[in-house]
Amino acid sequence: MKLNYVSWTIFLITVIYVVFIYGGLPDKVPAHFDLQGNPNRYDGKGAFWGILGIELFVLGIFQLVSKMDPEAMNYPVKLTKENKEFQFKNNQITLQGMGVLIALLILSIVRYMHQKTINPDYPMIIVDILIVSIFVFTGWRIYLSVKNK
User: Fold this and answer.
1) Other C-beta atoms within 10 Å of 107: how many?
2) Pick from 68, 110, 70: which is nearest to 90 by CA?
3) Cα–Cα distance between 126 and 117 in angstroms, integer?
């Protein structure tokens, strides 16, 4: 459960960051990017609040799902007496870890959008690394679940 605190702390840091930069943002900010990191859509600066709303929703869903009855959840393997405890714990770690990675991704996207308004050449590498990390983490947790069936 400690990772949930990390997710929510990152969310609060992101909110504080947006509050801090919001007044200095131009009316139109880059909101969507191609694979090379070039903006291909601009929105009003209120898009930052929309992103925070999405993050709040996702973290809230993760929080609710982590409190569900573990036996009501889906697993990549059949639950048995022998694997049940591991699968429940693995599921919690997966949900909480995904929450942290998604919170970091949103923080990085917000920072990237802000930096692109200042420096059009600002690199997208952190966002790319976090997206890959989410897939690697998910694959690793599924592998562990299947390995411990």
Assistant:
1) 21
2) 70
3) 17
CA-nearest of 133, 132, 126 to 107 is: 126
7-60 tens-digit pLDDT: 999 999 999 999 999 999 999 999 999 888 889 999 999 999 999 999 999 999
pTM of the model: 0.90
Number of structural domains in the chain: 1
| 8 Å CB contact between 27 and 47 | no
By residue range, what is the domain housing residue 142? 2-147
CB-count exposure of residue 139 (10 Å: 0-12, 13-18, 19+)? exposed
Tell me what the pLDDT averaged over the chain comes to: 92
pLDDT of the residue at 127 = 92
Q: How far apart are CA 60 and CA 45, in angstroms?
A: 24
